[in-house]
UniProtKB/TrEMBL annotation:
Keywords: Membrane, Transmembrane, Transmembrane helix. It comes from the Eukaryota. Residues 1-80 form the Ig-like domain. This is Rano class II histocompatibility antigen, A beta chain-like. SMART domains: IGc1. InterPro entries: Ig-like_dom, Ig-like_dom_sf, Ig-like_fold, Ig/MHC_CS, Ig_C1-set, MHC/Immunoglobulin. The chain crosses the membrane at residues 95-117.
Amino acid sequence: MDPGSPNTILLCTATGFYPSEIDVQWLKNGQPEKEGVAFGEELQNGDWTYQLQVMLETQPQRGDIYTCKVGHASLEAPVTVQWEPRSSNAAKSKLWTGAMGAVLGVVFLAVGLSLYLKKKKKKAIPIQQPAFMS
């Protein structure tokens, strides 16, 4: 992991389950993640159901797949939800600004070079052949 990259906190929330026994885990590339996992307090909703949040603090790398897996007696099979990284609007804005700046830079360079070459061509003094009399 790159020590300079920021950590990301992934949050998995299970709500409305009864009985209170539940298995919530984070998987990284299909394997249970042990480090950086924090379990919140199991809370009662007031209608005999419960809720639980499980956080994972990690540094996602390109190609990593993170999945929240929930197992409970009320489910026929565990439910899995895959985390999809999204780039922020600020990051997209910076990308577009950089791309447009590069395009404008190339355009100004081409125009400037074209004008310079035209001006240089005009200043060149044509060499005339001396006239010979016969």
